[in-house]
Amino acid sequence: MDFTFIILGICLLIVLAFEFVNGMNDTANAVAPVIYSHSLDPKRSVLVAAILNFFWVLFWGIAVAMSIIHLLPLSTIVSQPTSFGIILVISILISAIIWDLWAWYLALPVSSSHALIGSILGISITLMFIPAWADTIPHWGKAQEVIIGLLISPIIGFGFAFFLIYIAHSILRKKSYFKAPKTEDDHPTFAMRSVLIISSALVSFMHGKNDWQKWVGIATLILITLLPGYFAINPDIDFKNLNNDIQIIEKTLTQINPESLSEKEKEQLLETTSQLAELKTLSEKAELSTTEKVTLRSSILHIQDNYKFMNTSKKITFIENTYAGEGSEIINLNWIQKNINNLSQATDYVPWWIILLVSIAIGSGTMIWWKRIVRTIGEKIGKHKMNYSQAASSALITAGTIGIASSFGLPVSTTHVMSSSVAGTMVEEHGWKWGVDPHMIKHILLAWVLTMPITIILAGSIFFVLQFIFLK
Questions:
Q1: Could you say which of 149, 276, 399, 430 has the lowest number of CB atoms within 10 Å?
Q2: Mind listing the pLDDT tens digit for each residue in 140-182?
């Protein structure tokens, strides 16, 4: 047990180190407009950003964190030995850290989100080529949603920022609003400064709603993998509240006409029914052993995976047309979607102290190394320095884009949305030829395109080698 705690501490230190690097690169983008415009000094900017990120994750949910974790085939991972989980987590983190450090060294505002997601997908894909886990299927549907969100969000940022700065030119007449700071003593007007502070605060708030949750999720995955007896199941959940959901799911599944099922669907129905019975038995116990907690978690994940697969079938029919006691409602698998989702109350949670540690690490990284990325955002994306209106427009559009994406549970990159928003304002004011630096844009686009495939290959290769050495 002591050895496990040592490994746990090392893995969490790696996560916090990554968060520190992420603060150096990714979070610096969130505070770039307010720092570069001299609206707020760096220390206060980073402190406000850290507090807003922390409070969002602590009080308003962890949907994006769980979305990232579920890119992994959790129903397979949860039943593996501790050594498997250690290798998996280390492979993801090393891959993402290498990419982030390379980007920071070149002062490129690349996406830590892309790096993390690419690394996770690299593990999922690699499992398919290892005989012991050849039947593991990556969550392609979830991966497709995530990738689409990451790809289109910068385009949205560019277009809306272009439009917003166009409106600003039409409405705002004071030249001071479109002035760029030249010295440390240059400051925006009170009104513009207020807008810049509020807009940057919104970016930090939305960053907590989206980006920050990803790393909180990875830290939680480490806890679940290494100490399932403590963290496999939400300690605050009252399992009696799930019994009604279990009963509704069981009763609905008994109405399925077996003749309408394929052989694979019959196997899944039988497995789901068995796991529901086991889940019901375990949920009625006053206290669970470590093995029972892992079994309970595994059962919930398998039930959810099997449900997703069966729910895509258009051939499944039911013996009866109506559900007893529910009037004229037609039976279908969508009818129990809410009950299936409710089972996640037992598995999807994050300890508050993980949120605090991640907040401290990422804030420290931003505090120490913010200058390189802030200068890139403010001076190197365009051929002209970013002025006050451009800074405010970029921040507002970035916050809005991240907020909308988060409402759909889609992880997006603060880095890429902010960079593309700044580029949009530069193009509107100065045109393509004189607005943006083609050399810098080329490097940013190159990093944007290469991040996913490189981290997929890197993480997959590291995992393959480590599992070959230590799991054989």
A1: 430
A2: 766 777 777 777 888 899 999 999 999 988 888 787 788 877 7
